[in-house]
């Protein structure tokens, strides 16, 4: 009887491992918003990491977060290293920039779970304003695949992107009005 129970547990464990391994090995999250402001105004907000405290979901959600900035905003090498109770520890670094059109960032998470991801902003002219698209791509190792069984990356990251973009919109639009005066 014990032998049958152990075999049953082993089979269930094997099935569970198979389900985990079958999860996607990569993820992609993307959100966009229309902002009634010139690309250079939006660029000033997204390319300077010290400005993110005004609109970023993560910066606003963790008042304990301490950030250290280095490099020239909007250029390769500009970075933000952070430590926070809710946001953990990590660094984001600009790895590519096409002024007023595209910003590529590498995210290196240290705690609570180590990992890397690539994120970018694409600014596309749209009438009198700009369409801002924010995306993230990453690899799912075993732990990422396991976590994917219990949480949806698109909903989790996508919701934070939606919040951040919604916060960015009035800031950029107000700054555009100030520059126009």
Report on this structure:
- The protein is an alpha+beta fold.
- Helices cover 38% and strands 36% of the residues.
- It is built from five helices and seven strands; from the N terminus they run H-E-H-H-E-E-E-E-E-E-H-H.
- The protein has a seven-stranded antiparallel beta sheet.
- Strand 3 and strand 4 (88-98) form a beta hairpin.
- The longest helix is centred in the last third of the chain and has 28 residues, at 153-180.
- It is elongated, with a radius of gyration of 20 Å.
- The mean pLDDT is 86.
Q: Mean pLDDT, as a whole number?
A: 86
Order of helices and strands: HEHHEEEEEEHH
| Strand elements, count | 7
Query: How would a textbook summarize the main sheet?
Result: 7 strands, antiparallel
Label the overall shape.
elongated
Structural class: alpha+beta
Show unreliable segments: none
Percent of residues in helices comes to 25-40%
* Total number of helices: 5
């Amino acid at each position: 009887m014990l032998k049958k129970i152990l075999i049953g547990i082993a089979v269930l464990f094997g099935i569970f491992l198979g389900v985990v391994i079958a999860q996607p090995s990569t993820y992609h999250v993307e959100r966009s918003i229309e902002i009634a402001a010139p690309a250079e105004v939006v660029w000033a907000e997204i390319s300077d990491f010290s400005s993110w405290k005004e609109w970023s979901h993560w910066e606003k959600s963790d008042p304990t977060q301490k950030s250290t900035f280095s490099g020239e905003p909007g250029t390769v090498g500009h970075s933000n290293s952070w430590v926070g109770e809710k946001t953990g520890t990590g660094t984001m670094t600009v790895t590519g920039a096409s002024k007023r059109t595209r910003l590529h960032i590498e995210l290196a998470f240290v705690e609570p779970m180590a990992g890397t991801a690539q994120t970018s902003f694409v600014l596309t002219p749209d009438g009198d304003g700009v369409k801002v698209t924010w995306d993230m791509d990453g690899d799912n190792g075993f732990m990422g695949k396991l976590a994917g069984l219990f949480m949806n990356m698109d909903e989790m990251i996508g919701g934070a992107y939606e919040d951040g973009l919604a916060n960015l919109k009035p800031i950029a639009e107000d700054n555009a009005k100030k520059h126009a005066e």
